Give the backbone structure.
Amino acid sequence: MEKLLSNTFQTLAKNSAANKMAQRYGLKFGAKRFVAGDSIEQAVACVQQINQNGMVAMLNYLGEYVFTEEAAQEATQNCIKTLDAIHQTGINSNLSVKISSLGLDISRELCIQNLKQILDSARKYGNFVRIEMEDYAHCQLTLDIYKELRQDYDNIGAVIQAYLYRTEDDITDLNNYQANLRLVKGAYKESPDVAFPKKSDVDKNYEKIIQTHLLNGNYAGIATHDDVMIEKVIEFTETHQIPKSQFEFQMLYGIRSDLQKQLATRGYKVRVYVPYGVDWFGYFMRRLAERPENVAFVLKNTFK
Ligand code: FDA
């Protein structure tokens, strides 16, 4: 039953009619638990609260799978406006972006051109941009774009997913770029041809890639809510004398806020991922797919 629900949410996440409908009706079904709001003002207020609690943030203007040049340009401008707002309000946040929203499915050149505008704007403010990892179909292209732009930009980071078989090789390759990586388990529904089907194998690979990346001397954003894994990472960094300045824990807004605050109190850098904007449906569905127990929460909010 759990698997069936998870698959249903994964399918809905990519359903364009459902996504369009959701955009028209605003944040519904309890999505506010995971999304800061529709507007940049709401997002800034949310980050201010996070900063007051001793943590930093990464803002994400929600959007993905864009298929017109106009929409890709609009997403680019929204990313730039987000960077402007971070600078103007003085909040402590960087930017996280899905490059399918910048036109990756239209043309590689258009996407690179848009991404460069965002990186230039971030560089002007001394800020940092992380390009997220989406489904497997976009993986190679995303890494190629990262590697190309990394030659000219110090303020760019990428994401690596532990569920992919290829990931160990990618970690080795990205060491040549001294890559600042966010390390995640992986959020998309992938075929067993390319990804470990068993969670225990994903967890094992996750631990392995975190250790390799840290021992290579590179910066890591350890993005998980898995408290057992987090304690293992803390023990590993202590044993190997890896300084706290070489990594940060990253978690999603609305998930394990207790754990976020505890880690910050223990002196670890905690960065909260704060998504905002009208295109919230796909993101929300993936959060439900990860944890179908959240359905009870959705049903309660739907009939409120
Ligand atoms: P796991 O699934 O093992 O969960 C551990 C515990 O966390 C659970 O027992 C529960 O307590 C809590 N938990 C996890 N998910 C929850 C949920 N939805 N609701 C409530 N509780 C939950 N993926 C990707 O493919 N590309 C990307 O770019 C990113 N970016 C990203 C940024 C950040 C900051 C985070 C934290 C995660 C991502 N992800 C991602 C998502 C990631 O791949 C993964 O799907 C989720 O983090 C869930 O896996 P966990 O590592 O938390 O562990």
In short: The beta strands are 56-61, 93-97, 129-131, 156-161, 181-184, 220-223, 247-252, 270-276. Residues 36-279 form a domain with the TIM Barrel fold (CATH 3.20.20.220). The chain has a mean pLDDT of 92.
